[in-house]
Amino acid sequence: MAYERLALVAEFFPDFDRWLRNSPRRSRYMDAAEEALQGVSPEAIGKACRKLLEGDLPRHQRLPFLVAQLAKQVESGKDAAKWRAISEGQATVRCRLCNDTGLVEILDPATVKERRETGKLIVPYTCVVLCTCPAGDRRAEISGALKLRRLRGNDITRDHQLSAREQYETLNRV
After folding, report:
1. Is 1 exposed, middle or buried (0-12, 13-18, 19+ CB in 10 A)?
2. Residue with the larger pLDDT of the pair 169 and 153
3. Dihedral over Cα of 88, 90, 93, 94: its sign
4. Which of 11, 35, 146, 167 is deepest in the core (most CB within 10 A)?
5. What is the DSSP string of 20-78?
């Protein structure tokens, strides 16, 4: 196995390079260290090494693993910056319905039914339900004790452009 990424780390830290050459369990350790560094670019490894050189150096055994962790953070920050540039600075979300929160505010179904049947203007209530997206699935796992129900097709989602009263007034037209 070629240890290209581990060699890159050793270039930044000569003491680590010497320690690595003299280590008795060298091949197994080097395999694990190279595997930890595998998913990141050499540029990110270089940035992570430079960042570590600014502070206190960790023990030699931990060094490549810490470099891998910092390099992954550098890569994720670069990806986030790339997406911000693509979206022209606007926040990007996967689900426009819940904005990736997993929760959707809707007009209370019992109140909507009452409004449609009687036509009376009653106090506009809202409630929260779980979204049908993956964020809603995660929210259901995390807050299982709340026993929130899922969003249904006949639910009327809360329109934050209109007041709740204005939304109820449009119900008779729906």
Report:
1. exposed
2. 153
3. negative
4. 167
5. HHH-TTHHHHHHHHHHHHTTS-HHHHHHHHHHHHTSPPPPTTTHHHHHHHHHHHHHHHH
